Amino acid sequence: MQRGLTGHYVPSIAGGISCQAFVPLALPPSPALMIDSKLQKRINEANRALGRLDAISMLLPDTNLFLYSYVRKEAVMSSQIEGTQSSLTDLMLFEMAGLPGVPMDDVQEVSCYVKALSLGVQRINEGYPIAYRLLTEMHQALMTSGRGISRGPGEFRENQVWIGGHRADEAAFVPPPRHILRDCWSDLEKFINDQPEATDPLVKAALVHAQFETIHPFMDGNGRLGRLLIPLILVEAKVLKQPLLYLSVFFKKHRHIYYECLQQTRMTGDWEAWLLFFVDAVAATATQAVEMAQALNQLHAQNKQLLSTLGRLSGSANQVLDALFDSPILNIATLVARTGLTAATTGKVLASLVDDLQLVTEITGQKRGRIYAYKKYLDILNKD
To answer: Among 155, 159, 204, 313, fewest CB within 10 Å belongs to which?
Structure first.
C-alpha cells in the first residue's frame, strides 16, 4: 500500500543554508499495515527462525561463550557501516590490552558498541522500559571514547543535520529540527511501550528501527543505536532470552535496498516493502546464527577429542582450549590467569596446540609478548 508522504516539511537552517526538514507522522502507520498472504508468510518464517535462535542455548555448552564473540562480531560490522576499519581480531587485541592494527579511535568505537549493548540488556533485565533514560544512557556509553566523545554523548542534538549530499539543500534526507526532536521521540517511546495498543514485537522492531533512523535524534551514533534497538525490543518482549539477533551484516550486504526502503517509508508510506525486507533480514540472520552456533559446537567437540592424543598434557590442554573458546585471542599471561596453570605448562600446551595439532596460531611472529589465536573458531565467526 502506498500512503503518500508520511509526514510534513518545516523550514530549517543547516550549515548556514536554508533547507526543508522532514517531520514524520507518529506510529503506527495510517492506514494500518496491509499484511497480505505474501507478507504474512514471510513474517511467519522470520518468527520460526527467531524461535530456533532462542533455542540456541540447547545447542551450546555455554551460551555466554557464543554471545561474547557473536556480540563482538556485530559490533565490528555495525561500526564498519559507519566507516571504521576495525576487525574482530583488532577488537579482541584491544580488549586484551594488545595493540590493534588500525587507528585506536576505530577500535575504541567498536568496544564502546559492546558496552552500550551490555548496558541496554542489563537495564532491560532490571525492568527499565525502552524510554528516554535508557536511550541516552546507551548513547553515552556508545560515545564515551574515540571520535564520539566530542559528539554530544547522551544528549539530543542541538544542530540541524542532514544525510547525503555536501550541503543541506541538496541532501538525500533532512531529519526533524532540534526543537521538534523531543516530541518525535515522545511519540515513538509511546509506540515502543504499547501505548495506546500493543504491536507484534517483530513488526514493532521493524517500524521502530525505521522511525528512529528518520528522527535521527543524536549528532552521531544514530545508525548503531538504531540497530541496537532491534534486539532490545525482542528481548524486552521475551521473544529472545539473549540479544542474539544482529542485522548489520545483512544491512551492509544489501545497503542500497536498505536505504531505499527506509526512504520510501517517508516519501510514499510503503511500510509493507520495508517490513518485507526487514523480516527477510531477520529470517536470514537468525538462520545464520543458528548455523554458526552449530559449527562452533561441532568444532568444540572435535577439538576436545583431539586433545586426548596429548597424553599427560591433555588435562591442561582442555583448560587452555576452554579459555580460548571463551576468548579466541589470548596471550600466555592471560591464559595463566584464567586457567591457574603455570606459565611453563601453558607454554608447553600452546606449543602442542600450534605445532602438533595445529589448532592455534601465534599471530605476532615475535619471541616475546606472543599472542595466540584460535584460528578455526575465528574463521567460523568471520564467515560472511
So the answer is: 159
Q: CA 157, CA 181: separation in Å to the nearest integer? A: 9
Residue 4 buriedness (CB in 10 A; 0-12 / 13-18 / 19+): exposed
- Residue 123 CA: distances (Å) to CA of 95, 182, 246, 247: 23, 22, 19, 22
Regions in the chain scoring below 50 on pLDDT: none
Q: What is the pLDDT of residue 71?
A: 75
Domains of the chain: 7-292 (1.10.3290.10), 298-381 (1.10.10.10)
Torsion, Cα of 41, 43, 48, 51 (10° steps): -170
Q: Distance between CA 57 and CA 241 in Å, rounded? A: 9
Give the per-residue pLDDT at 359. Answer: 92
Task: Give yes or no for a cis peptide into 196 (omega within 30° of 0).
Answer: yes
**Burial (CB count within 10 angstroms: exposed 0-12, middle 13-18, buried 19+), residue 326:** middle
238: left (phi over 0), alpha (psi -120 to 50) or beta: left
pLDDT at 106: 65
Type of residue found at 330: L
From residue 88, give the alpha-carbon distance in Å to each of 95, 217, 338. Answer: 11, 29, 21
